[in-house]
TrEMBL record:
Keywords: Amino-acid biosynthesis, Decarboxylase, Lyase, Lysine biosynthesis, Pyridoxal phosphate
Organism, as annotated: Flavobacterium amnicola
Pathway listed: Amino-acid biosynthesis; L-lysine biosynthesis via DAP pathway; L-lysine from DL-2,6-diaminopimelate: step 1/1
Gene that this sequence comes from: lysA
Protein name according to UniProt: Diaminopimelate decarboxylase
Role according to the record: Specifically catalyzes the decarboxylation of meso-diaminopimelate (meso-DAP) to L-lysine.
Amino acid sequence: MEAPQLLKIANEFGSPVYVYDAAKIESQYQRLTQAFSKVEKLQINYAVKALSNVSILKLFKNLNSGLDTVSIQEVLLGLHAGFSPDKIMYTPNGVSMSEIEEVATLGVQINIDNLSILEQFGAKHPHTPVCIRINPHVMAGGNSNISVGHIDSKFGISIHQLPHILRIVENTGMHINGIHMHTGSDILDIEVFLYASEILFETAKHFKTLDFIDFGSGFKVPYKKGDIETNVEELGRKLTKRFLAFEKEYGRELTLVFEPGKFLVSEAGYFLAKVNVVKQTTSTVFAGIDSGFNHLIRPMLYGSEHYIENISNPKGKERFYSVVGYICETDTFATNRRISEIKEGDILAFRNAGAYCFSMSSNYNSRYKPAEVLWKDEKAYLIRQHEVFEDLLNNQLPIEL
């Protein structure tokens, strides 16, 4: 999307506002499917946690995507958006047995990541197909908070506990129809990912009734000019060759599953905010905007870098600014960043705001959550309204004091 389109949206719907480019989502989806086009049975499950607006889910449904969910609420959103249960994978972590059983009644694919729940579920529901999440003990991710396949991770069943898994499966007679792993987000080294895949292939040999192998995702997208990204085309060539060879060795056709979130929606997203104040101190020029980490927490939480452009003055002379929010504590989006000269009232656009941005927003400082807009076929569609004061009171129960 270009600056004039974004400015028009900011003027029409106000700020702050999230904007999602449908064409970019579609092109990313097609890029991934094309990279694995030689795989006969390929299933892409969009990771709902990245961006869960129902209109976005419907967009993925139209692309023939499935869903990767981590809570019963995400499952229900998927069903509400029109997905059939067999197109939804449920991969919880640390949830109650009752939630897993409730999800199972909905007919979605269950994915279990610990021995205790595996044994309990297998004993009570031996005929319900179950996928097992393996922890390959492979570190692959750009930040310790989003690397989930290493030895100290809370996710998955350790590959070294495979004998325990096999004993549970034999004792309960449960039906294992899938094997899964997820090493973490921001995969930088394809060879590390392929190494982890070999561990998954070796594990799969122990289960004779598999329908699919799920390789997770975590493909890195560029967050700034010149940034590196996962070469999905190279990964497609190398993993496809190995997957097809394994199918022959296994003796039956399998579905290759990925569950990308960030890869599909990050670059499609823009966060637009208005500059409330330009404040010069003895050493810094602050651009204070009408938002804060209550709307976009990733820079404060992960130290992530979002490219920021002054779309009100895109060709202006660049100066150094620290872009900060209005939350009553340290609330910094960027420090000493080169941005076209900023004046009060200008609109700043944060790029790569599609993944883990609105979905992690809050009402901290009793601020309202922003609107969301979908840009599709050269038209802007409001897909979530700006919150108002009544939204803050919703579900509160005042008492007489």
